[in-house]
Design goal:
Largest sheet: 4 strands, mixed
Number of helices: 3
CATH architecture: 2-Layer Sandwich
Structural class: alpha/beta
Oligomer: single chain
Strand content: 15-25%
Length: about 100
């Protein structure tokens, strides 16, 4: 898991397509569900806010943090199951549609 705390490294996570601006202490990049659980447990123990961030294309400021940490889903990008017979797929939250349909 990568954690970034330098403000020059995390600037892109402090706004989205709505141009809403925010602030945070760190951006974390979990690579599996165990890391997500660990991040959320630590944030809960420290009473820190957690903002989930996808690709920052939102138009309402939902992924813009107001303190605490940002949990980026960009490394959670695996396609786990594609069942063509029953017509369903199981993907991690960071899978881009362009990757899913190729």
């Amino acid at each position: 898991m990568i954690t970034k705390t330098e403000q020059n490294e995390i600037q892109d996570y402090l706004k989205d397509a709505s141009n809403t601006k925010g602030h945070c202490d760190a951006v974390v990049y979990p690579e599996n569900t165990d890391e997500v659980v660990a991040i959320l447990m630590q944030a809960n123990a420290e009473e820190k806010k957690v903002t989930i961030c996808g690709n920052k294309t939102g138009l309402a400021g939902g992924s813009v943090p107001s303190g605490g940490i940002v949990l980026s889903t960009e490394k959670l990008n695996k396609i786990l199951v594609i069942n063509e017979k029953e017509k369903f797929a199981v993907v991690e939250p960071g899978v881009l549609l362009s990757n899913f349909f190729t």
